[in-house]
C-alpha cells in the first residue's frame, strides 16, 4: 500500500508539473502536425503524415523533398486538417547544392484545403485555397527590386493564379529577402497565426537563436480547416530541399493589436488640419480686402487731384 501511494503521488506530481508547464508556456504541442526523426515506423509509414513523389526519407537526418537532380517533385502532407484557431509552426529545414550562381527552384510551406496534388507551384497545385509560404531561390522575371533567395506569402481563394514567370509578384501578400540557402547555421522558420489578429513569419538563418521578422500582416483570414504541407520542385536547375523537423503548437489568444494608421502624404496632411487651413484662408481674405481698399482710396485721390487741375 505504501508503495502504491508513493507511486500515485509521484504520478500526480509529474502530471501537475506537465500542466503547469503547459500553462506557463501557453502552448500545447500537436503531435498530429509535428514531425521528428526517424520520421517513419516499422511499416515504413508515418502515422500523421503522407509523403510521396520524389521525396526520400533518411531516418537519421531529414525528409528530402527533392534531390539535387533536374525535374523532381516531392511532397509531405499532414493526414488530418489543422483546426486550431491560434497556432505556431516551427520548421527546421535545409536547402543546399553545388556552389554556383544557378540553383533552384525552392520549396513551400502550405496551409491549404488541397493536399497531395502535384502541380506547378513549388510542386503543388495552382489556384489553391489557403496560405502558401514560398522559399524561392530562383529569379524567373529578372526585373525584381529585391534579390533572391526570397520568402513570399500568398493567400489563395481557389481562384487566384500564381504566375511562375513573374515569381508571384502580382499576388504577393508579404515577403522579405533572406539568404537561407547553403548555410552552416541551422535554418528555421516560425509561423505564428492568431485568428482575427495577425499572421507573422520569423526566420533564423544568420546566427543560432537569432530570429528576424520577415513580415507581420494583420487580420489574415484562413479557411476553417487546412492541411499542413511541404512541397518542392526542380526544373533544369536543382537543389536539395530538406525538411528536418516540424513542431506545431496551439496558442492561447492574445489581445488584438491595433492596426497602425497608414501614413498620409504631405498634401493630405495639410488638408486634414482644419484649424490651420481656416486661419490661412481668413488671412488671405483680409489681405485681399486691404489691397482692394487701398486701390480704391488711391483711385479717389487721383480723381480728386485731376478735378483740381481742371479748375
From TrEMBL:
It is found in: Membrane. Gene3D superfamilies: 2.60.120.200. This is L-type lectin-like domain-containing protein. InterPro entries: ConA-like_dom_sf, Intracellular_Lectin-GPT, Lectin_leg. Keywords: Membrane, Signal, Transmembrane, Transmembrane helix. The chain crosses the membrane at residues 278-302. GO terms for biological process: endoplasmic reticulum to Golgi vesicle-mediated transport. It comes from the Eukaryota. Residues 27-251 form the L-type lectin-like domain. It holds the Pfam family Lectin_leg-like. The keyword Signal applies. It comes from Umbelopsis ramanniana AG. It is a single-pass type I membrane protein. One of its GO terms (molecular function) is D-mannose binding. Residues 1-20 form the signal peptide. GO terms for cellular component: COPII-coated ER to Golgi transport vesicle; endoplasmic reticulum membrane; endoplasmic reticulum-Golgi intermediate compartment; Golgi membrane.
Amino acid at each position: 500500500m505504501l508503495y502504491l501511494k508513493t507511486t500515485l503521488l509521484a504520478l500526480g506530481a509529474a502530471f501537475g508539473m506537465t500542466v503547469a508547464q503547459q500553462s506557463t508556456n501557453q502552448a500545447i504541442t500537436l503531435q498530429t502536425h509535428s514531425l521528428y526523426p526517424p520520421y517513419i515506423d516499422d511499416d515504413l509509414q508515418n502515422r500523421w503524415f503522407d509523403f510521396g513523389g520524389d521525396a526520400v526519407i533518411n531516418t537519421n537526418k531529414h525528409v528530402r523533398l527533392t534531390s539535387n537532380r533536374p525535374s523532381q517533385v516531392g511532397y509531405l502532407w499532414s493526414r488530418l486538417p489543422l483546426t486550431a484557431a491560434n497556432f505556431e509552426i516551427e520548421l527546421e529545414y535545409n536547402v543546399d547544392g553545388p556552389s554556383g550562381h544557378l540553383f533552384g527552384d525552392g520549396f513551400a510551406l502550405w496551409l491549404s484545403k488541397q493536399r497531395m496534388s502535384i502541380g506547378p507551384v513549388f510542386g503543388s497545385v495552382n489556384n489553391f485555397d489557403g496560405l502558401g509560404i514560398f522559399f524561392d531561390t530562383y529569379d524567373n522575371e529578372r526585373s525584381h527590386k529585391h534579390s533572391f533567395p526570397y520568402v513570399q506569402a500568398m493567400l489563395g481563394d481557389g481562384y487566384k493564379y500564381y504566375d511562375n514567370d513573374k515569381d508571384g509578384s502580382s499576388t504577393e501578400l508579404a515577403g522579405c529577402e533572406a539568404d537561407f540557402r547553403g548555410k552552416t547555421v541551422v535554418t528555421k522558420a516560425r509561423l505564428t497565426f492568431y485568428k482575427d489578429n495577425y499572421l507573422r513569419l520569423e526566420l533564423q538563418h544568420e546566427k543560432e537563436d537569432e530570429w528576424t521578422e520577415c513580415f507581420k500582416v494583420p487580420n489574415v483570414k484562413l479557411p476553417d480547416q487546412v492541411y499542413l504541407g511541404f512541397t518542392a520542385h526542380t526544373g533544369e536547375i536543382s537543389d536539395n530541399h530538406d525538411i528536418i523537423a516540424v513542431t506545431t503548437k496551439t496558442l492561447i489568444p492574445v489581445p488584438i493589436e491595433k492596426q497602425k494608421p497608414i501614413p498620409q502624404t504631405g498634401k493630405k496632411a495639410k488638408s486634414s488640419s482644419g484649424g490651420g487651413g481656416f486661419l490661412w484662408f481668413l488671412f488671405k481674405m483680409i489681405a485681399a480686402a486691404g489691397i482692394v481698399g487701398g486701390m480704391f482710396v488711391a483711385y479717389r485721390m487721383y480723381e480728386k487731384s485731376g478735378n483740381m487741375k481742371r479748375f
